[in-house]
Fold this protein.
Amino acid sequence: MDRKGVLTVISGFSGAGKGTLVKKLLQDYDNFALSVSMTTRKPRPGEKDGVEYFFVDQDEFEKKIEENGLIEYARYCDHYYGTPRSYVEQQLAAGRDVILEIEIQGALQVKKKFPEALLLFVTPPSAAVLKQRLEGRGTETGDVIAKRLARAYEESEGMDAYDYIVVNDDLELCVRQLHGMIEAARSEPVRQSGFIREIREELKGFREGAE
Amino acid sequence: MDRKGVLTVISGFSGAGKGTLVKKLLQDYDNFALSVSMTTRKPRPGEKDGVEYFFVDQDEFEKKIEENGLIEYARYCDHYYGTPRSYVEQQLAAGRDVILEIEIQGALQVKKKFPEALLLFVTPPSAAVLKQRLEGRGTETGDVIAKRLARAYEESEGMDAYDYIVVNDDLELCVRQLHGMIEAARSEPVRQSGFIREIREELKGFREGAE
């Protein structure tokens, strides 16, 4: 069988709980490899190279771009963020399912390069809940929250391009749904091409044997 | 919410166990409505009108075709078989998930009229197992089995047009997979259009409120 892993892209509104979801998904299920992004921003206290991000300088990042070594990248607040290609391709080839937690622009770039990727958009059950969650963190100023909500509005324009809208209301339920979507994706013809080819050959053999 | 049910089309090789699968799916889960086909063939002993099929004569069937009252139909062995439109549309509008168990040609017709329909192709784990199952029934002659296998080969050409390939090896597992695929389909943007519209409106409101 030439089964390849499923490339799952998880994005959605800031404050939708993507990080917690992904963490729980990796805890509850095997076979997932989490892709680590590359960035030119400086590590915050406690962040380790290769864990939260691969921390590189601008020259190194731009060299990666030129080499086509990133499957997506974007620039925010004067810093680059991107997904190294090699890790993703190695894991998929080994049959592992890869999770990318990235922004919407990046997600759409990935879909262009990997049309069989599964794009999941995580959202709270309503915009009111999103606002509450952002305010509830207590770590952001009103100004930052307003900016995040304005950005969420812009991002909501891209929701239709996703394969699934994942409403994160109950964490346990949401993780099960997410897992179910990835499970289902394993049965898509594009990932069953080896099986389809084999059964066709075998059926063809029967027909020729009967003639 | 304008949530509509999922229209699931189940087809696959004769001998793949579709009937048993569908029966178990309806037993194990609620919210499914099984569409009953219309045919011009005569009822077999024990078959009831409206249960196995709606039994009609040729004039009535052709009138239905003219009225655009069927979402798909085909002719086999001098008889018509088709799916009445009204039942399917009523159930979907009421938010119930509808199951159609039909042939491949019909499945592709449904996909044209209902692009958001979920097409599942049920197959045994190999052609050898398919052959065993057909022989194991003990009700068919070698000639009939050879014809079914030849037809399976032709049908295998259409597998790529399906959303999912469902390998029916273990019945329990297979029913759970099937259910998972239908569950996932509920989260597709096309079925979450009401939710997407609402959250966008709400986010837009926040932005305007903040200005």
About this structure: Strands of chain A lie at 7-12, 32-34, 37-39, 53-55, 70-76, 79-84, 97-101, 118-123, 164-167. Chain A touches chain B through 43 residues (CB under 8 Å). The domain at 7-35+97-210 of chain A is CATH 3.40.50.300 (Rossmann fold). Chain A is about 45% helix and 20% strand.
